[in-house]
Design goal:
TIM Barrel, about 300 residues, globular, 13 helices, alpha/beta, single chain
Length: about 300
């Protein structure tokens, strides 16, 4: 069973490819996953927000999970997102993913009905006991309107309920406080590209990143740079990607990201409603920054 030690380095948050008629495109997903591992990924995270979890049917989510497990072929953990708003739906998804063979689930805090910290602890305890899979917590308060306090996370780490967390929260002091409360048996994973180097300096061992769909080699390299030190080298490396990060997130994710993949010759279709494809000016911006980023990568990996 997956433990915290198995979560490290680059874990791309995968897009879900769609065909021209809007169906899940299994062949494209397989190609994308192969490209991620070839680019240095240490595992994959399908079915998160970047994977348009909420726009997929349960059957489609199962297809994505099965495809991810088969394509990963044991090269790294498959951590499937569970972004359902409440317990019954979340548990049904996790049980489906377990039967598909995933290694863990990335559990979003329940949203709409907003719980207290005590309620969240009870919810996650009950979920873990019922689903029988390792849990990676998913902290993204901009989406859920609720934040797991560092002490809450530490409680779930100490009793073995959760093995790690994707921290998609720009509250740097909160991350720093959390890092001081958990040990090596809990994996701190960054979840925001502009903070990867910062999170590594404060104790993160990996990151779950959307732009890794585009440039996995670039993000895989930052972990080696950080290990070699000094710390400012990782910040300098990350800074080279800022124009790309800004362009990819200029409109709601993953619309620009999917268009960027098409620009580099890795088409994955469009997004599903209520999301829309990016505006022409955003597409032009993406093309410009991607062309410039080729020079960055050639310098890094020639």
């Amino acid at each position: 069973m997956l433990t915290a030690s198995g979560l490290a380095g680059l874990l791309p948050a995968l897009v879900t490819p769609f065909s021209a008629d809007g169906a899940v495109e299994v062949a494209a997903l397989r190609r994308l996953i192969e490209r991620m591992f070839a680019g240095g990924a240490r595992g994959i995270v399908p079915l998160g927000g970047t994977g348009e979890y909420t726009a997929l049917s349960p059957a489609e989510r199962r297809t994505v999970a099965e495809t991810a497990v088969a394509a990963a072929a044991g090269r790294g953990p498959v951590v499937a997102g569970v972004l359902s708003p409440g317990y019954a739906e979340a548990l049904a998804a996790a049980q489906d993913f377990k039967s598909a063979g995933v290694d863990a689930v990335m559990l979003l805090s329940p949203f709409y009905a907003l719980g207290t910290q005590a309620g969240l602890i009870d919810y996650i305890h009950r979920f873990r006991d019922a689903c029988g899979l390792p849990i990676v917590l998913y902290e993204i308060p901009v989406r859920t309107n609720v934040s797991l306090e560092p002490e809450t996370i530490a409680t779930l780490a100490a009793d073995g309920t959760a093995i790690g967390i994707k921290f998609s929260n720009y509250d740097v002091p909160r991350f720093h406080r959390l890092a001081g409360l958990v040990g090596d048996d809990f994996a701190l994973l960054g979840g925001e590209e502009p903070l990867v180097a910062c999170h590594l300096e404060m104790g993160a061992r990996g990151a779950v990143l959307a732009t890794a769909n585009l440039v996995p080699e670039f993000w895989a390299e930052i972990f080696d740079i950080h290990r070699r030190g000094p710390g400012q080298a990782a910040f300098a490396h990350q800074a080279k990607a800022q124009p790309l990060i800004d362009a990819v997130f200029a409109e709601p994710n993953p619309g620009p990201l999917k268009k960027a993949l098409a620009i580099i010759g890795e088409p994955v279709g469009d997004v599903r409603l209520p999301l829309l494809p990016p505006r022409p000016e955003t597409v032009a911006r993406l093309a410009k920054v991607l062309a410039a980023f080729k020079d960055v990568q050639s310098l890094e990996y020639a």
